[in-house]
Amino acid sequence: MWFCAGIVSQLTRNCGVSPAERQTVTELTHFDDSGASRMVDVGDKPVTARMARAEAVVEMRPETLATIRDRGLAKGDVFEVARIAGIMATRRTSDLIPLCHPLPLEGARVDFEILDSQTVRIEATVNVRARTGVEMEAMTAVSVAALTVYDMCKSIDRAMSISGVRLLEKSGGKSGHFVREPVSS
Amino acid sequence: MWFCAGIVSQLTRNCGVSPAERQTVTELTHFDDSGASRMVDVGDKPVTARMARAEAVVEMRPETLATIRDRGLAKGDVFEVARIAGIMATRRTSDLIPLCHPLPLEGARVDFEILDSQTVRIEATVNVRARTGVEMEAMTAVSVAALTVYDMCKSIDRAMSISGVRLLEKSGGKSGHFVREPVSS
Amino acid sequence: MWFCAGIVSQLTRNCGVSPAERQTVTELTHFDDSGASRMVDVGDKPVTARMARAEAVVEMRPETLATIRDRGLAKGDVFEVARIAGIMATRRTSDLIPLCHPLPLEGARVDFEILDSQTVRIEATVNVRARTGVEMEAMTAVSVAALTVYDMCKSIDRAMSISGVRLLEKSGGKSGHFVREPVSS
Amino acid sequence: MWFCAGIVSQLTRNCGVSPAERQTVTELTHFDDSGASRMVDVGDKPVTARMARAEAVVEMRPETLATIRDRGLAKGDVFEVARIAGIMATRRTSDLIPLCHPLPLEGARVDFEILDSQTVRIEATVNVRARTGVEMEAMTAVSVAALTVYDMCKSIDRAMSISGVRLLEKSGGKSGHFVREPVSS
Amino acid sequence: MWFCAGIVSQLTRNCGVSPAERQTVTELTHFDDSGASRMVDVGDKPVTARMARAEAVVEMRPETLATIRDRGLAKGDVFEVARIAGIMATRRTSDLIPLCHPLPLEGARVDFEILDSQTVRIEATVNVRARTGVEMEAMTAVSVAALTVYDMCKSIDRAMSISGVRLLEKSGGKSGHFVREPVSS
Amino acid sequence: MWFCAGIVSQLTRNCGVSPAERQTVTELTHFDDSGASRMVDVGDKPVTARMARAEAVVEMRPETLATIRDRGLAKGDVFEVARIAGIMATRRTSDLIPLCHPLPLEGARVDFEILDSQTVRIEATVNVRARTGVEMEAMTAVSVAALTVYDMCKSIDRAMSISGVRLLEKSGGKSGHFVREPVSS
User: Helix or strand or coil: residue A82?
Assistant: First the structure.
């Protein structure tokens, strides 16, 4: 059952939104009181040093990962191409995500770790001094790095999948320090 | 004397890659025989009608998904913003993925389905008549749509995660018809 | 009175759409039957030679236009900078317009005409052989050329305005030949 | 009569620019004393909170506007797609306008108002703390939002036109507060 | 002595262009008869398989080149990063060069050769089947690859220089086969 | 266990990099200790007023340069198109150069000088107040301006070449004031 259809039938049945639900709605800061999406004005927030880390895992056949490791010994390492793609993607984030602020990023890195015979973990760290955070830049970096690994290996393993794209750490904003453990082997 | 060659001979002497492994390495078509990455020349492949479908799921707290559903009743629907982001991303794919071919895309769509109280499934379909396929465009569309859902809801649920980014179907190339079942609730 | 507000109150009053109205809705080809926006699949349309012309006018104080004319005598002509901006914008159209197809444009030109002492007319012509037309490329070219004239002269005439952005001619598609007269002095 | 031709004949007749005219020329800050265009160095201007608002109107057949309103009741609202396009365009402004400064925008919103049975008004507001203003970002936002409305409705109303693209308000720079009334029904 | 100044004084002295010179002017196909720049309409040219090769050299201190070579043994090879940058730049060419046609590139590669203790040669090859050639894509690829080498080594050798950016070969268009020898050590 | 580390230890065993060479390697700030490329974190550097100047020369047949000069008398000056391309390229630098920081540029100019009957010199100056410098923006500006001259004249002189792309001056960072003489006729 598709959501579009669901919503339409729900509209027919019930055009009222309860007061409690309305309150929840206003928590989504990307919408104003009338419900219009916007790039939130962050002009009143202070400039602080902000950092975000995100991770993703790419799952593949053991033969595929063995091939990537072998390539790491030669030129044209898969992870090196994916690393460059991930770092460059941090600077394209506000071209991709509609309500994201453009930020003068100060640092970005992308690292790769082999968790087990069929799993690669990717972690990105992004830094800035700005009025808003860089979670989306870190999340975009790991996503694009993972997509690049997929692109480079899809000729031998079309069934690869990307999972666990999530925020690991965020610091520097008024919402406090968020941190959680990375996935491990 | 080419630098690539220099490295390869040194690798042969020192880093020990077995002949069998070498064969696997050459299956990664994004690298040439010397190991250099490249945008593969597809000029000799025929122009055929090609299609690719990909999916991703976004997992979140039930309260978050309830909020998104409520928003669907008003203006500024989260899924509509994410849909636009995913469609636009199909056209930025070769700006993001280093060895991807630029293609004159002929159609793209992104759909959303609520699987259960905390899971949203996103599916993208992309069409082209070209010498190479559109898997990366479909994979990029679901990734960017999922990142946009994350961006719009992160103020209330920073722990959301994106999983199951994978190819569902691919047709039109010489590698044949690839198809698998979508994730279901 | 804002539309957002209007729509919401209308929703409360009237969630039914009449059959006649439904028929009209489906004429907007950028939406599918369920109402979801999409990049329409044009794969079944034939490749034909297509052309579109669009125009815009920029209105300004006579002193401003006199200054632009004087500059035309020296280096750094305002119209030359705007012409380059308009031509380059034809190639960015699908980066800007969410449901627009990317096209391998074959030709583009932007011209300027002084209609009277305070009015400049801009005309753009774009050519392609493709499955869909180039109206948006021509419309975007005149808009960006006009915005560039505004940018370069805003320090002396902040009240300038851009009007009459419209399609003048379109040929090559199944919808037939559309043509109308340009604005004249 | 085209301006290019006019300028050339004028060059033949009259290569002198009067002293009074010369003074006017130098007011165009995008050119230096030798007449070369440039991105003006704003390094000596103070960082201040700046805001700009701009508007545009889209004129169409009443049937077209009725169709847009009907769509507002379902998914895939024309104005919502145009809103996203306008907001994203604020961040592409310096990619489009040749001598425009890139700015770390802090807020952007785009709103739609139905003025009468055939006229839609679009208004954009952009905020930044920077050494130069955001007029071009606001002007570009309303232009791209209007072009998107055109794109989505052109299959039913090719003759739509965009008018009244102009600055409504600007504050925060040394040139003082500029403000004027929006167009009304 | 700057050209701007020179041109202006020449304008004052001599506004006539001789008939012979006029003929030469029209050879620049990027301008029409009235002198306006344009993206030339290539719609009447046949689609043919086209190829272009270009080269550039980067000159540096022997210590710098030794460092690059050492890095080639580890991760993060300077040439690999530059190779990716060069390949990606082929797809950005029409974003950078004002009158360049956007083309659906079919193949691109960038190679590095150490000519002597202080000189690196870069060569790019680009392929397409289109109505116009890919010289600019190959020239842009070597330029951006060379700029990336500069960027990565500038902290130890600010005086590096890039030379000999030139076309080596071009085939597939009506202007015939152009080929010349690469620079050698 | 990180993959980078794995490679490094293997290198230590097999590929023999001497301790002295290792020291040199770490001078390339775009790599971290493990050898991974990154966008260096400049968050701890102070914001200072920074400037960079770069130059390039374009060599061509005397007939080609004569044609460019003649065009300078009419509309559509080759140098004016190249100037706009160079200025716009300063703002695309971090889209092109993988490890380059995005910067809110405050000023940019590109100038042209005819050195002799077959040589044009291009100079770019870029300004910013930021934590890192603008050498790459100035180097990219002269490269893209030179490529544009090549593009506009290649129909009459395919053998043109671009040389001497190099930094002329850099000020404002902790590495001190770097300056050298431009090439002269």
Answer: helix
Cβ–Cβ contact F87 with D under 8 A? yes
Average pLDDT value for residue range E36-44: 93
- The Cα of D76 is separated from the nearest Cα of chain B by a number of Å equal to 7
Contact predicate F41/F101, CB 8 Å: no
What are the phi and psi torsion angles at A64 (to 5°)? -65, -45
- For B35, the token pair is 């190991």
* Residue owning tokens 């050898």: F35
C177 known ligand binder: no
d(CA F143, CA F124): 10
Q: Tell which of D136, D143, D180 to mutate to test the C interface (max C CBs under 10 Å).
A: D143
Distance separating alpha carbons of residues B132 and F123, to the nearest angstrom: 42
What pLDDT digit, counting tens, does each position of E64-105 carry? 999 998 876 554 589 999 999 999 999 999 999 999 999 999
Distance from CA of D4 to the nearest CA of B (A): 35
C16 Cβ contact list (under 8 Å, min separation 6): none
CATH of domain F52-174: 3.30.70.640
Signed CA dihedral, F90, F96, F100, F102: sign only: positive
Residues A75, A163: contact at Cβ < 8 Å?
no
Using an 8 Å Cβ cutoff, are C151 and C162 in contact?
no
Residue B145: which region, alpha, beta or left (left: phi > 0; alpha: psi -120 to 50)?
Answer: alpha
Provide the pLDDT for residue F2: 29
Q: What is the rounded CA–CA span in Å between residue A138 and residue A97?
A: 13
Nearest residue in F to D105, CA atom: F104
Please list, in sequence order, all residues whose beta carbon lies within 8 angstroms of the beta carbon of residue C77, skipping any fewer than 6 positions away.
C71, F75, F80
Q: Which subunits sit against C, judged by 3+ Cβ pairs under 8 A?
A: A, B, D, E, F
User: What distance in Å separates the CA atoms of residue D9 and residue B178, rounded to the nearest whole number?
Assistant: 66
- pLDDT of res. A44: 94
User: Does pTM top 0.80 for this prediction?
Assistant: yes
D151 among known catalytic residues: yes
The domain spans of chain D are 52-174
**Structure tokens of D144?**
């791209």
Note whether C40 contacts B: Cβ–Cβ < 8 A: yes
Q: Amino acid identity, residue A36?
A: A
Tokens of A57: 């895992």
How far is the first Cα of chain A from the last one, in angstroms, to the nearest whole number?
Answer: 36
- Report, as an integer, the average pLDDT of A93-101: 97
Q: How confident is the model at residue E33 (pLDDT cuts 50, 70, 90)?
A: confident
- At C4, list the tokens: 């957002």
The residue count of chain B comes to: 185
Cα gap D37→D25, rounded to integer Å: 12
Task: Provide, as residue numbers in chain E, all residues whose Cβ is less than 8 Å from the Cβ of F21.
Answer: 66-67, 70
Q: What angle do CA C22, C25, C28 make, to 5 degrees?
A: 160
Task: Say if the ipTM goes beyond 0.90.
Answer: no
CA distances from D23 to D18, D19, D33 (A): 9, 6, 10
Task: Answer whether C128's CB lies under 8 Å from C106's CB.
Answer: yes
Q: Which residues pair with C52 in a beta bridge?
A: C126, C170
Q: D161-171 and D48-59 as β-strands: parallel, antiparallel, unpaired? A: antiparallel
DSSP strand pairing (F48-59 vs F161-171): antiparallel
Listed residue (D83, D114, D161, D153) closest to C163, CA to CA: D161
User: Which of D88, D111, D97 minimizes the C-alpha distance to D39?
Assistant: D97
In angstroms, the CA E34 to CA E37 distance is: 9
pLDDT digits (tens, 9 = 90+) for B12-63: 222 233 344 444 444 788 888 888 899 999 999 999 999 999 999 999 999 9
Q: Which of D133, D161, D126 is nearest to D56 (CA)?
A: D161
Three-state DSSP at A55 gives: strand
Q: Check if the beta carbon of residue B38 is closer than 8 Å to that of residue B31.
A: yes
